[in-house]
Amino acid sequence: MFKHKGVHQYTWYQDTLGRRSMIDLVIMSSDLRPHVLDTRVKRGEELSTDHHLVVSWICLRRRMPDRLGRPKRIVRVFWERLADPSVRGDFNSHLQESCNQIPREVGDIESEWTMFSTSIVDAAIRSCGRKVSGAGRGGNPRTQWWTLEVRDAVKLKKESYQAWLARGTPEAAEAYRQAKRTTAVVVSEAKTRVWEEFGEAMEKDYRTASGKFWQTVWCLRRDKQLSANTVYGGGGELLVSTGNIVGWWKEYFEDLLNPTDTPSVEEPEAEDSEVDSFITQAEVTEVVQQLLGGKAPGVDEIRPEYLKSLDVVGLSWLTHLCNIAWQSGTVPLDWATGVVVSLFKKGDQRVCSNYRGITLLSLPGKVYSRVLERRV
Q1: Which of 155, 160, 343, 375 is the most interior residue, by most CB within 10 Å?
Q2: Under a CB-based contact definition with an 8 Å cutoff, are residues 319 and 281 in contact?
Q3: How far is CA 104 from CA 79, 238, 318, in A?
Q4: CA–CA separation, 83 vs 308, rounded Å?
Q5: CA 152/CA 223 separation, integer angstroms
Q6: Of 367, 364, 371, 373, whose CA–CA distance to 118 is shortest?
Q7: HSE on the CB side for 248, CA within 13 Å?
Q8: Whole-angstrom Cα distance, residue 163 to residue 227?
Q9: Which ranges of the chain does DSSP label H, i.e. alpha helix?
Q10: How far apart are CA 356 and CA 257, in angstroms?
C-alpha cells in the first residue's frame, strides 16, 4: 500500500545467509484503515531480536478518548512547603491581606464560609505554588538509575548500532557488541546502587518516619493493582458503561451508609452553661493543634497543614466563622458534604463489597464539631 525503499519494507534479516522477509505486520480494524497515513520499518530502533520495529501513523479527526485506568496528570498545591517558616509567613500574609478586604458586617453562614475557604486556598496556592504529582507527571519515579553515565553509555550503543546497520562490516558489528555489553554492565550497576539506596531509605523511614514508610508501601502496592473498568451490579450483571458504574457505586454506598434498621439513641441534655457561651479562640486553637498532618482534604480542598499554619489572624477568622455557625444553628453545605473514596481490600475487584469506603469531610467542619464535642 505504501511505497518505500527495501530497507524500510523488510522487517527481518539474516545477514549470514542473505535472507530477508516481511513477516511483521500491523493489524488494523476496518474503521481505522482509511485513517492510516503511512506504515514502514524503523531500522534505527534497537530490539532484542533480529526483527526491526514496524510503525504506523494514524490521523484521527476526533479527540482520542481517555483510557480507563490510565494515570492522569495531577497538579496539586505544594503544601509540604508550609514546613518552611518563610513560606508559612507568606501564607499568613496573603490570608491577612484577603481578610482586610472583607467587610466586617456579619453575613449568612454560606457567604462567610465562601470568603474564608476561597481566601485560605488562594493563600496556599500563592505561597506554596503547585506541584505535578502522580504517575502522569511526565517522568517515571522508578527510573532514578538513569544517570549521566547510563545516558552516555546508551547513546554510544545506539550510535554503534546505527553504524553497524550502515556499514555492515565485522569491525562495526564487534564495536556494537562491545558497546552493548558495556551498557548492560553500567545499567546493572546503576540499578543495584539505586535499589540499595532505596532499601536504606526505607529502613530509616521505618524507624524515624513511619507515616512516610507506609505511604511508600501503599504506593508500591497500588501500582501493581489493576484498576477495575467493570463492576457487577446488584443483580449480578456486569456493568461496562461509565454512567452505569458510577450510578451503581452511588446506590451501593447509599444503602451501606444509610441503614434503615438502626436503633434510636436518646441524647442526654447538656447541663453545663458553657454550651450556650461563645466559642473562644483558645478552644479552636487547641483543636487545630491536635489535627494530624498529611491527611486528605474534604470537598473544600483545605488540608490540615493550612489550618495548623494559621497565625492569630487566621485563627481569629476561623473562630468567628464557628461562632456564626453556632449562633445561627446551621453549617455550610461543604461541612455536611462528604467525599466517599473506595479502597480495595482483597478478592474480585469487580465486586463493590470488596472495597472499604472512607468519607473525607471538611476539616474546618471537623474543628467545629470537635469543639462542640468537648463542651458536652
Answers
A1: 160
A2: yes
A3: 29, 56, 14
A4: 10
A5: 30
A6: 364
A7: 20
A8: 44
A9: 85-100, 109-128, 148-167, 170-208, 210-224, 242-257, 281-289, 304-308, 312-328, 363-375
A10: 12
At 313, the pLDDT band (50, 70, 90 cuts) reads very high
Give the residue from 108, 357, 370, 148 showing the smallest Cα distance to 255: 357
Compute the average pLDDT of residues 261-266. Answer: 64
Q: What is the mean pLDDT of the chain?
A: 83
User: For residue 231, which amino acid is it?
Assistant: V
Query: 37 in helix, strand or coil?
Result: strand
Which residue is it, cell 525503499?
5
Task: Name the DSSP class of 263.
Answer: P
Enter the DSSP assignment of 293: T
Regarding predicted confidence, which is higher, 141 or 353?
353
Instruction: From residue 82, give the alpha-carbon distance in Å to each of 107, 132, 210, 300.
Output: 31, 17, 20, 18
- 3-12, 236-245, 264-273, 310-319, range with greatest mean pLDDT: 310-319
d(CA 235, CA 252) in angstroms, rounded, equals 12
Measured CA to CA, the distance from residue 35 to residue 54 in angstroms comes to: 17
